[in-house]
C-alpha cells in the first residue's frame, strides 16, 4: 500500500479588514484540505512597515523574517486576496516587496495557488493576473488551473457566520487545493529524480 506524504501549506491573506470576505475563505481552507494536507495562516501583511531600502539596511523587520521562514518551510502557498482598483491591494504588494528582498527568497521554486473573492461579477480576476506577473520574478510555480475567482461573493460567503455558505464554491476550492497538492508532490518527485 502506498503512503501519502503529508504536506503543509501556508496562507497569505491580502485583506486587513476584520469582516473580510477573503479572510473567511482563508480561514475555511483547513477544513477543505485534502487528506494528508495541513494548512496554516501566515501573519498579517499589516504588520509590515512600508518598504524602504533604508529600513531594510537597518535589518529585516521581525515580521518579514518570520513570514519568510514560514513560507520557506512550507510545501506550498495559497494567496487569498481582494482586488483593489483592478490590481493587487497595496498592503499585499508591500509584503511581497519585502519578502522578495529576503535571502534566500522564499517563493523561489514554491508551488503557489491564488484565490480571490469579490462582491463584483468577475471575482478579482484582474488582480490574479497582476499577481501572477509579480510572482514570475519570484520564480514561484503558480498553479494554472483551476482558478478560484469567487464572484458575487456576498451571496456565497457569510462573513457574519465566518463560513462559505455556497456548497459549490467550497467544492471548487477543494478541487484547487487537491491540484496544489498534486503539483507540490510532483515537484518533490522531480527534485528526487534530478
Ligand atoms: C475595491 N473593490 C473592488 N472589487 C473588484 O472586484 N475590483 C476592484 O477593482 C475593486 N477595487 C476596490 C478598490 C478599493 C480601494 C476597495 C476598498 C474595494 C471591492 C472589494 O472587492 C470589496 O470591498 C471586497 O469586499 C474587499 O475584500 P475583503 O476585504 O472583503 O476581503
Automatic annotation (TrEMBL):
Q: What Pfam families does its record include?
A: FMN_red (PF03358)
NADPH-dependent FMN reductase-like domain: which residues?
A: 9-153
Taxonomy of origin reads: Bacteria, Pseudomonadati, Pseudomonadota, Gammaproteobacteria, Pseudomonadales
Cofactors required? FMN
Q: Which InterPro entries match?
A: Flavoprotein-like_sf, FMN_Rdtase-like_dom, NAD(P)H-dep_reductase
Cellular component aspect of the GO annotation: cytosol
Protein's recorded name: NADPH-dependent FMN reductase-like domain-containing protein
Source organism per entry reads Pseudomonas putida (Arthrobacter siderocapsulatus)
Keyword check for Flavoprotein: yes
Q: Which GO molecular function terms does the record list? A: FMN binding; oxidoreductase activity, acting on NAD(P)H, quinone or similar compound as acceptor
Q: Which UniProt keywords apply?
A: Flavoprotein, FMN
Write down the PANTHER family for this protein, in alphabetical order.
CHROMATE REDUCTASE, NAD(P)H-DEPENDENT FMN REDUCTASE LOT6
Amino acid at each position: 500500500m502506498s503512503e501519502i506524504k503529508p504536506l503543509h501549506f501556508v496562507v497569505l491573506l491580502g485583506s486587513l479588514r476584520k469582516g473580510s470576505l477573503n479572510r473567511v475563505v482563508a480561514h475555511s481552507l483547513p477544513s477543505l484540505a485534502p487528506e494528508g494536507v495541513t494548512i496554516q495562516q501566515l501573519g498579517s501583511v499589516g504588520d509590515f512597515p512600508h518598504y524602504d531600502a533604508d529600513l531594510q539596511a537597518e535589518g529585516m523587520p521581525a515580521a518579514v523574517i518570520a513570514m519568510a521562514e514560514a513560507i520557506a518551510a512550507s510545501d506550498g502557498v495559497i494567496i487569498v486576496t481582494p482586488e483593489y482598483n483592478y490590481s493587487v491591494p497595496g498592503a499585499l504588494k508591500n509584503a511581497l516587496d519585502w519578502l522578495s528582498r529576503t535571502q534566500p527568497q522564499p517563493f523561489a521554486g514554491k508551488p503557489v495557488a491564488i484565490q480571490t473573492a469579490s462582491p463584483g461579477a468577475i471575482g478579482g480576476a484582474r488582480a490574479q493576473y497582476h499577481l501572477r506577473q509579480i510572482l514570475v520574478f519570484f520564480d514561484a510555480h503558480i498553479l494554472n488551473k483551476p482558478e478560484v475567482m469567487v464572484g458575487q461573493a456576498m451571496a456565497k460567503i457569510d462573513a457574519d457566520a465566518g463560513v462559505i455558505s455556497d456548497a459549490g464554491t467550497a467544492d471548487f476550492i477543494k478541487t484547487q487545493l487537491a491540484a496544489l497538492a498534486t503539483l507540490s508532490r510532483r515537484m518533490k518527485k522531480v527534485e528526487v529524480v534530478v
